[in-house]
Write a structure and sequence with these properties.
- The radius of gyration is 22 Å and the shape is globular.
- A 10-stranded mixed sheet has the order 9-7-5-2-10-1-11-15-19-20, sandwiched between helices. Strands 14, 16, 17 and 18 form a 4-stranded mixed sheet that branches. Strands 3-4 form a two-stranded antiparallel ribbon.
- The protein contains 12 helices and 20 strands.
- A hairpin with a 7-residue loop joins strand 19 and strand 20.
- It is α/β, with parallel strands linked by helices.
- The chain has helices at residues 16-23, 76-88, 107-120, 132-141, 153-174, 182-197, 204-213, 247-252, 284-294, 312-322, 361-364, 392-405, and strands at 3-8, 29-32, 41-45, 48-52, 65-68, 73-74, 97-99, 103-104, 201-202, 218-221, 259-267, 270-272, 306-308, 310-311, 326-330, 340-349, 352-354, 368-375, 409-413, 421-422.
């Protein structure tokens, strides 16, 4: 059976967790293929909220094998804490498999992340300071420690000694911070964390390919989103990995021909956390209203999100970067009270019209959005269980977005709950 990729089409926080949880009902294996615990998502099941960071959304389905793939960077303590919290809520976490090739986030990664961001001052990138970027940097520099190294204490200590020598020089000579102890780090990772992690470490590439050979269905989920992609996002205000659908192959071990469906998640408006360009950004009363109605605060960090109108220029770019086969639209209900709604259908900058984002960052920072205005529906849609129950204006908004994106919309979220969605006919 082919695999399906779920990918955010904006700057994250589109509701990937809820959609992944929804699609997981038809899947056998759910794989997280990139990122770390720098982003999270919230799923509401029967009124109970579950916040996930590293664990795939498929963990909530007892019939699924949840997998953390090789493309993820993992803080072992954070992962174990998350599993403990899920266990306290009655979730069976024993099915989780962690790739031995995933890279470890180490204490020096977190310290360097904090120091570097502080050093950048007004040019700070707005990272979560959780060591994600430095861990990926060490991976690329080939000095990273991997999950499998935990299973060989001798190798772990040898690698740690080599890399910590260089990190301590940076900490002490550049940032005037105390050196870190290799002995203390090794004791914590090997003695405290490894005994609990060891049973879940495995060959995840073999797991996903064996599943395909048995005719099982695989769902691949990202964190962050298209415009936070290291190569295709609004650099340098991006993450340190590749959330786009192409990254699913590298981060899971599947081949391109194993993937046939790519579902893009798009919020009915747009949000962004931290610095970076945002052509359709709002301010004032409307901004405050959407933040309040949409509860636009980071799941992990609590940071307030910036809010703007739906941007079809971004959506079209996301469609072609990811080869989207369909779009799931989320948080339509947040717009319930608006009399009219704007949609950005193009950009204008320096006398040039753009249907897709300009490649040059200087131009992107200068663009003015070109809007079309559509009527709002000014009624509560959260109780809708069928598409036909939506007001005609809400249906027209969905159809309009579908037309300007150029990809069919297959699912529409009408509330935060697991069951609050409708499917256009």
């Amino acid at each position: 059976m082919p695999a399906t990729v779920v990918v955010g089409t904006q700057w994250g926080d589109e509701g990937k967790g809820k959609l992944t949880d929804l699609l997981a009902h038809d899947m056998d294996v759910v794989v997280r293929y990139q990122g770390g615990h720098n982003a999270g998502y919230r799923i509401v099941v029967n009124g109970e909220a579950f916040s996930l960071q590293l664990v795939p959304a498929g963990i909530l389905n007892p019939n699924i094998t949840p997998v953390i793939g090789n493309g993820v960077v993992v803080d072992p303590a954070v992962l174990l804490d998350e599993l403990d919290r899920l266990g306290e809520k009655g979730v069976d976490t024993s099915r989780l498999v962690l790739s031995g090739n995933a890279h470890l986030i180490m204490p020096y990664h977190q310290e360097l992340d904090r120091l570097t961001e502080r050093f950048l001052g007004k040019n700070a990138l707005g990272t979560t300071k959780r060591g994600i970027g430095p861990a990926y940097a060490d991976k690329s520099s080939r000095v990273g420690l991997r999950v499998q190294d935990l299973l060989d204490p001798k190798i772990f200590r040898e690698k740690l000694d080599v890399v910590l020598h260089e990190k301590n020089l940076v900490l002490t000579k550049i940032y005037n911070r105390p050196a870190m102890s290799a002995k203390d780090i090794a004791e914590r990772y090997l003695d405290e964390l490894t005994p609990r992690l060891a049973p879940m470490i495995g060959d995840t590439v073999a797991i996903v390919h064996d599943a395909l050979d048995r005719g099982q269905r695989i769902l691949l989920e990202s964190t962050q989103a298209t415009f936070l992609d290291l190569d295709h996002g609004t650099y340098p205000f991006v993450t340190s990995s590749n959330p786009v659908a192409g990254g699913a192959c590298a981060g899971s071990g599947l081949g391109p021909r194993d993937i046939t469906d790519v579902v893009g998640i798009a919020k009915a408006y747009v949000t962004r956390v931290g610095a970076g360009p945002f052509p359709t950004e709002l301010d004032g009363e409307l901004d405050a209203l959407l933040v309040e109605r949409g509860q636009e605060f980071g799941t992990n960090t609590g940071r307030r999100r910036r809010v703007g109108w739906f941007d079809a220029v971004m959506a079209r770019q996301a469609a072609r970067l990811n080869s989207l086969t369909e779009v799931a639209l989320t948080k339509l209900d947040v717009l319930d009270t608006l009399e009219e709604i704007k949609v950005c259908v193009g950009y204008e900058a320096r006398g040039v019209h753009y249907d897709f984002p300009p490649y040059h960052q200087s131009i992107l920072h200068d663009v003015s959005p070109i809007y079309e205005t559509v009527p709002g529906w000014q009624s509560d849609i959260t109780s809708a269980t069928k598409y036909d129950e939506l007001p005609s204006a809400a249906q027209n908004y969905i159809k309009f977005l579908e037309s300007v994106i150029g990809v069919p919309i297959s699912v529409v979220g009408v509330g935060p709950g697991r069951e609050q969605f409708v499917r256009p006919s």
